[in-house]
Write a structure and sequence with these properties.
Elements: E1 4-8, H1 17-31, H2 40-48, E2 52-57, E3 62-67
Antiparallel strand pairs: 1-2, 2-3
Helix pairs in contact: 1-2
């Protein structure tokens, strides 16, 4: 089982924005919640504002993401 690394998201993670959006939409559909759909640009904005964390495997694969809305 790979190690999971959780860190403050930064400009190096901007390319994950599309993957993050797809995962958020898929998750919301699977659990039946009414989460608003986010765009990659919105996710990138949260990353650049320092309001997001990202989880990656030790091999650099996307595992999870979270941001705060203020």
């Amino acid at each position: 089982m790979p190690n999971i690394i959780i860190q403050l998201a930064n400009k190096n993670h901007l390319d994950f924005a599309s993957i993050i959006c797809k995962e958020m939409t898929t998750s919301a559909k699977q659990i039946g919640t009414g989460i608003a759909i986010r765009t990659p640009a919105y996710i990138q904005q949260k990353i650049m504002e320092g309001k997001a964390v990202i989880a990656l495997s030790d091999e650099g694969h996307f595992v999870g993401f979270c941001y705060i809305e203020t």
